[in-house]
Input
Amino acid sequence: MKRTATWTAALIVILGATLGLPPAARAADQTVATAGAGGLYPAGTSFMAVSVSGLQLAFGAEVHADGNGLGDFTAVLLGLSAGGLEQNVKIQGAVTSGTRNAVNVAVLSGTATLDLGDGTPAMPGVPFTATLTTGTNNLGTVGLEIVGFSTLPNATLNAGSLALRTVPAE
Output
């Protein structure tokens, strides 16, 4: 009887200590970011002489507490060439790192192939950073930097879904 009471007391102490630890002291959680969304850029937005009005976005990525990331990222900038013809710029690549800056903000980074949509060869190995901010109705904003080329203003999502979820670390 005394032995059972001792084990029970020890178990309560261990569980209490484990459950009472702040989140940072336990195994760090991961962030899962997903989107299938479309949005609009502010008037006057341009990228490499393409007048950009909108964005189509698709990605699924996992960001670990140590900053490593894994996933795929695709963005299509919807625009018009200087001659007034449709010209869509494609950024397609792999997420390799990221951070979770707040409950509603995550940053994904990696390298992509940049296709200007003008018939010139696509450029592989271009670094990108996407800043995702969730808002109401599973939408929000996306800030996109194509390193060495341009930092675009935030696109306001108006269709589809953007989600940031916390997943317990295994």
User: Anything to note?
Assistant: The chain has one helix and ten strands. The chain has one domain: 27-167.
